[in-house]
Amino acid sequence: MIEKMKNMKANALKLFRTAIDAVDPYTCVKHYLVFNNNSSHNGKAELHVGNNHITLDHNLYVAAFGKAAIGMCRAIDELCHEHIIKGIASVPVGAEHNLPDQAAMNTAQRIQTMISDTMCADDIFLVLISGGGSALLPLPIDALSLEEEIQIIKLLQSKGANIQELNTVRQAMSQLKNGGLARIAKATTIIGLILSDVIGDPLEFIASGPTFYSGNKNRQTLNIFNKYDLMNRIPAQFLQHLKQYENTNDDQNISSIKQIYNIIVGSNRIALEAAAHLCHQSLNYIPFIMTTCLQGEAREVGRRIVELITTKPSQLIYNDNIACLFSDKSTFDAFQTLRKEHKRYCLLLGGETTVVMKNNAGKGGRCQELAVSAALTIDNNQEDISILLLAAGSDGIDGPTDAAGAFAFNGMITNEDDIKRAHISLDTHDIYTYLSEINDGANLLKSGHTSTNVMDIIIVLVDNKE
């Protein structure tokens, strides 16, 4: 069994690396953009963005922000270096733990100055957007300080707010989000190339939609504060602003006076499809993509994944408890067929779970909690099925730790003392400390920063005994 688990672990690592390579920001940008320096159309260089041909004539400004900014910038620099007038990138040197900081705000102010003071209407504004962009483009409205914005985000995170709720509030707090960047830019042609880190790839929520206006967010923000019982903890001046401008429209007909192209160049689905292809071609497992919209509390998701696999198909019923694991009911039906027809298969899930933090929480991350919860659920005495799960952040970061995620497998947590400690560590959200201490930390995945971000990736290898 030990040797088998080593092989399964090695295969899971191959799949994870293949998934990450598929959403390499440099590759993604080059795949979607074509640069023609000898255009027969007008004798000038052109940038082909999908079916749109954009004329370049030393008139390109570039702004990039997010965990994939460097790779995306490198691709643009190689494609059309001679036409770039100026570019500014905000990368994760600041913005620690995905929270805005003064360094990121300084860069945001430089971007604001570049696009509002330096640009002309005939210029082209290329915006390179990736996960972490919300924290790396902070420019609060006048009713808020940066410190107050940070505290509001921390409060929402501690309450378990999902990414859609977080980004809705971020939009209400910012001058540049929710189409603000496009609105203040003097250029009338704006291209947004986007590496999505949000479930469903909604333009309004990826980096909080700096090039996409989706309506006034003040009422929604107030509703979110009410939902999490935070009204008494929000600065009074900001609450007053939200109520005063609850019904205003900031669009100012931006879509009628500017050409804005927003294109998703990389996503969680692209990553999972690459892993599925390798699985089918080389690893002798039948791949099955369950969902790219995984949500829910991390511990519950980990437990339910294992219960799903270990429950006989005839006893499994599609209900609210497992619906989060599937794209829809038809995907569940296909999963049932898969289990009946195949002994070896690989389940692939993508999305972003949550952890509801408590006071005095320890050190850990959602992927690590998901994995340990799964490990505790695996029946160590069940010899007719081998399970290995890897849950990891595609950015190589899981919480405020140096780990991307963790593994779970048969026999990982066996003795009573380890089981007890695992439960305590989950309750105190100190799971990184626990995983570091058992098996010399070998059950943690430490990939380092991947320079991309398409949410979390969960790989589950299943081998039923013949």
Notable traits:
466 residues; alpha/beta; glycerate kinase, domain 1; Rossmann fold; 6-stranded mixed sheet; 14 strands; globular
Look at the helices and sheets and give the structural class. Answer: alpha/beta
> What is the CATH architecture assignment of the largest domain?
3-Layer(aba) Sandwich
What coarse outline follows from CA principal-axis ratios? globular
| CATH homologous superfamily classification of the largest domain | MOFRL domain
Low-confidence stretches: none
The radius of gyration computed from the alpha-carbon positions, rounded to a whole number of angstroms, is: 23 Å
Query: Largest sheet, described in full?
Result: 6 strands, mixed
Could you say how many structural domains there are in total?
Answer: 2
Question: Hey, roughly how much beta strand do the residues contain?
Answer: 15-25%
The CATH C-level class name of the largest domain: Alpha Beta
What proportion of the residues is helical, as a percent range? 40-55%
Q: How many helical stretches?
A: 18
Q: Residue-averaged pLDDT, rounded?
A: 92
Q: Output the strand order for the largest sheet.
A: 9-10-14-11-12-13
Strands, count = 14
Rounded to the nearest angstrom, the distance between the terminal CA atoms is 15 Å
The CATH topology of the largest domain is given as: glycerate kinase, domain 1
Family: Belongs to the glycerate kinase type-2 family.
Pfam families: DUF4147, MOFRL
Domain MOFRL: 346-456
GO cellular component, one term: cytoplasm
